[in-house]
Prior knowledge:
The protein has 95 residues and is mainly α. Helices cover 62% and strands 0% of the residues.
Amino acid sequence: MSYQKYGIRPQLVERIKAKLKNPLLKDRVRLMLANVTKFDLQDRVKVRKLVKSTASILQEPLTDTQEEQIVAFVLAQKIDPNNTFHLLKLWGMFR
């Protein structure tokens, strides 16, 4: 899995996936990400803020190292939230 190349542990991903099965948390995260653009996802400061906000919503404590690994992963993916192919690719990674 490509996120492991960035040092992100599978246990962290599994915990977050389990927490996102809660409809209330999922909706809060979805609302937070509703207006995110491709350019936002290429801005290190904005991505870091999104990671911190999401971790706060999910009550998932992240170390500075984990935050940096997640930010590096998101930046490297060059995600376009309006491109269905990009979203399917991400969905497949975390399925």
